[in-house]
């Protein structure tokens, strides 16, 4: 039985996003955190760690087509607080269209200090990352979290998801507290959210 036209209209953006993601992944697989956009439950879990009552910026790394961005907005984060750091120019154009009040920065999140040096007006209340950390050398991961902590307010979270069974950044970093969500089995593939805070 065919879907009613309203249901087809709701499914179309998600399907379009999946096609965009797959095309980008085929072109540059190591630049993409996933083959498909994050599932809604994973995106909501990540957004849960962000303080909606703060006025400080929220930095999202690798937003892609905006699955996690959408969850942040649905949770109550004002678009004006969002700083979306995206490498892919096509995704940047899409994000500017979907989130016109957000600040979209085309740049390399793995060079976060250089990318954000003149962008933030105040320390961020969260950095939310959809980057493919486990595909990167450990020194690159550690540099990223160091630069993220430099951009964050004291005690603010660095939120990262991974499909791997091990944490993307070691739990034993000195002066850093770590927590993890339950594995999100409803995501494809199953994922876990890790949260790092500088003590």
Automatic annotation (TrEMBL):
<dbReference type="InterPro" id="IPR029063">
    <property type="entry name" value="SAM-dependent_MTases_sf"/>
</dbReference>
<dbReference type="GO" id="GO:0003723">
    <property type="term" value="F:RNA binding"/>
</dbReference>
<keyword id="KW-0489">Methyltransferase</keyword>
<dbReference type="InterPro" id="IPR001737">
    <property type="entry name" value="KsgA/Erm"/>
</dbReference>
<keyword id="KW-0694">RNA-binding</keyword>
<dbReference type="Pfam" id="PF00398">
    <property type="entry name" value="RrnaAD"/>
</dbReference>
<dbReference type="GO" id="GO:0000179">
    <property type="term" value="F:rRNA (adenine-N6,N6-)-dimethyltransferase activity"/>
</dbReference>
<keyword id="KW-0808">Transferase</keyword>
<protein>
    <submittedName>
        <fullName>Methyltransferase</fullName>
    </submittedName>
</protein>
<keyword id="KW-0949">S-adenosyl-L-methionine</keyword>
